[in-house]
Amino acid sequence: MGHASTSTARVVLVTGAGDLAAAVVGSLAEHGAHMALAGPDAEQAHRAAPSAAQLLALPCGPDDLAALGRAVDTVVDRLGRLDHLVNLVAAPSSPGPLMEMDPLALRDILHSAFVAPLACVQRAYWRWMASHGGSVVNVVAARARGGSQDVALAGLAELTEWLAAELAPRVDVHTLVPGPSLDTGAYQAGAAEAVCGLLTRRTDSTHGPVLVLSGDSVCPSRAW
Question: Are 112 and 62 in contact (CB under 8 A)?
Answer without folding.
Answer: yes
